[in-house]
Amino acid sequence: MKKLSLAIVIVLFFSTCAKKQDPFLIQKHNIGLLTDSTQVRQLDSIFINDSIVRFVGGDEFTGNINNIDIYDKDGNHLLVLTPTEALDSTAVIDNIRILDPRYKTAKNISNLSTFKDIQNAYKINRIDNLINSININVNEINAYFTIDKKELPANLRFDMKLTIEASQIPDDAKIKYFMLNWN
Predict the structure, then answer these.
(1) Which fold has domain 25-181?
(2) pTM of this prediction?
(3) Where in the chain are the domains?
């Protein structure tokens, strides 16, 4: 009887410890198994079932940036990773562009979310007014969301000196880019 009880306790212990990491969960310091300290050379083992496309070229035209594209086995474009240094296998990932809607935060925000979804889920730390878009910065998850100015009222589209407030952005404004910035 004691052996059976001990066996049940051991099984319960290991089953609770063996919680599998969600490969599509976005958190402040990781996306699935990809973390803010992952080096470029580790990508092959993290995305073992996916395709990794590295642009290998001189930095004369690319501005010393070499993005790394991640595709799943069905050919769906998942992520675009930008390392801190081009052509350096020990460089860590600096920026990540989320392309696949399966990637979501714990509060269910994905690249298909709207401005209202973001505002309801997270504290907006800053809104940057750019030439053709605005960036919504959320420090809680090291993310920013780009919204095309075409989604804004006409009086906010053309003056880059305007300070745009959250209350001026339509609730149904769509996300153009969902980016994580780790460094």
Answers:
(1) protein yfey like fold (2.60.460)
(2) 0.82
(3) 25-181
